[in-house]
Design brief:
The complex is a heterodimer of chains A (about 240) and B (about 260). Chain A is an all-alpha fold and about 240 residues long. In chain A, about 75% of the residues lie in helices and about 0% in strands. Chain A has one domain: MetI-like (MetI-like fold), CATH 1.10.3720.10. Chain B has a two-stranded antiparallel sheet with strand order 1-2.
Chain lengths: ~240, ~260
């Protein structure tokens, strides 16, 4: 650990509040003065998370639509994504290194593989939860299977689909803090670069938590916007 | 690297770098400094990894299961029991370990405590949800038979809640095993040591450690899954499908069995 830490010199111990910094303390002044060094890692973190979520969502959504019509696919997909979900992402980064090398690709593959089960399961649950009578009514109105899926089943499944996306989003933000092991940077690299310095750990860790909360809130807002009927029912 | 290359010629050569890693796990090698790494040394790392995991899981279960059962039985604190796992998910495990190192210092007890914080939310949420999902008529019947509150919890609610509680324990334990990998940051040499202190082991050692951690996690998932099925009351097995789906719909991932 020590030789790795030595490669990165994060702290500038001169200037105001030097004693606080030297004591590894929690120094507001230092955080304000040095906040700019967290912007790039934060951006990397956002990109990693959003790209992984977008890919993970597309794959799981596609698989769920397939499995919705071909029920026998549900068990194998759940098992395979379940194993991917179980594998610790830190291990996956290094298992992938010989195959995909260091960098964003490796990190994103690992993050995507982790999100598949969460989203797949929620999309399936959402679709399964659509009342049979509603579907019957749709068919009675002359909707084809495809129309039924896109105009009836998916809109009604949206709350659960987006609930899955929220879980996946917060989890991915957390796992992306380990992405620097795969050479993809992110806020974890900042945390790791000086793990005994309270100001650094609190700032980088706090930004990661904040990012998770913001993403979660954004998806919740999206959910409110696209499912106005759920609000009408609640009031 | 030379050492690794010499071993490859024996059995796992066809697997490339992964073959080297398997050699490393089973035979080990001697570094230039003359220390033995891999092989039996990996057993020590695995043992440390398991010790840390079991310590954290024991404390987490001792806190979360009774608390979840009690809150569920009283139908109180639902908001707390559910939101604790939402908040828990948002705190990255690396940040959690780092905060403990920065504020409390390194050491076995500190890392265990950090892992306990990580392990409690899924168990607590699942235990709470499991008890609240017990059919009210069943509880009514138990009370009608003259059972006291604690008896209802012990003889009716706990057995019916067990599968879901084990689901929470499984989620937590796999997560703790994954996170124990970064425990070397806090001075505890788990299987993460070759990953974090790569200079002492080389790339082969790091890959070998990654394989071990992954295998440990999958094994734990399968083993606890078996236990989970074994503790499921016969009557519940029939209706598990619809019940677990209902829970999942309401509470997201943690509430699945």
């Amino acid at each position: 650990m020590l030789d790795l830490l030595a490669q990165v010199e994060l702290r500038d111990r001169s200037g105001e509040g030097a004693s606080c910094v030297a004591d590894d303390g929690l120094c507001p002044d230092w955080i304000v003065d040095n906040f700019d060094r967290y912007t790039d890692p934060l951006l990397q973190h956002v990109v990693l998370t959003v790209v992984s979520l977008a890919i993970g969502f597309s794959i799981s959504f596609g698989m769920a639509l397939l499995a919705h019509r071909r029920r026998w696919l549900v068990a194998p997909i759940t098992q395979v994504t379940g194993i991917l979900y179980t594998l610790p992402s830190l291990a996956v980064f290094f298992l992938l290194l010989p195959l995909t090398g260091r960098g964003n690709t490796t990190a994103i593959i690992a993050l995507v593989s982790y999100s598949l089960l969460i989203i797949f399961r929620n999309v399936m649950a959402g679709l399964d939860n659509v009342p049979e009578e509603t579907k019957d009514a749709g068919r009675g109105m002359g909707l084809t299977d495809r129309q039924l899926l896109w105009r009836v089943e998916l809109p009604l499944a949206l709350p659960e689909i987006l609930a899955g996306l929220r879980i996946a989003a917060t989890t991915t933000v957390g796992l992306a803090t380990l992405a620097f092991f795969a050479g993809a940077g992110g806020l974890g690299e900042q945390i790791f670069s000086d793990i005994v310095f309270k100001s650094n750990v609190v700032t980088a860790g706090g930004l990661a938590v904040l990012l998770a909360v913001v993403l979660d809130a954004l998806i919740l807002l999206l959910q409110r916007a696209v499912t106005p009927w759920t609000r009408a029912r609640a009031t | 690297m030379d050492q690794g290359a010499r071993h490859v010629t024996t059995t796992f050569a066809f697997l490339g770098q992964f073959g080297d890693a398997f050699e490393f796990i089973f035979k080990g090698q001697t570094t230039r400094e003359g220390t033995e790494v891999g092989g039996s040394q990996f057993l020590e790392l695995t043992w440390e990894h398991l010790k840390l995991t079991f310590a954290a899981m024991a404390v987490a279960c001792a806190i979360a299961v009774p608390l979840g059962l009690w809150l569920g039985h009283m139908r109180k604190g639902g908001f707390l029991a559910i939101s604790v796992s939402n908040v828990g998910r948002a705190v990255p495990s690396l940040a959690l370990i780092a905060l403990f190192v920065a504020f409390l210092g390194t050491g076995f007890a500190n890392v265990t405590l950090a892992l306990v914080l990580l392990a409690v939310p899924p168990i607590l949420t699942n235990a709470y949800v499991a008890v609240t999902q017990v059919d009210p008529d069943t509880v009514d019947a138990a009370q009608g038979m003259g059972m006291t509150g604690p008896e209802v919890v012990r003889k009716v609610e706990l057995p019916l809640a067990l599968p879901l509680i084990f689901g929470g324990i499984k989620t937590s334990m796999v997560n703790v095993i994954a996170t124990a990998t970064i425990a070397p940051l806090a001075g505890i040499n788990t299987l993460g040591d070759p990953i974090i202190n790569v200079s002492g082991y080389g790339d082969t050692g790091r890959l070998a450690a990654a394989i071990c951690v992954a295998a440990l996690a999958v094994f734990t998932e399968l083993a606890l899954g078996t236990v989970q099925r074994a503790v499921t009351p016969e009557g519940l097995k029939l209706s598990t499908d619809s019940a677990s789906r209902r829970m999942r719909l309401r509470f997201g991932r943690e509430a699945t069995t």
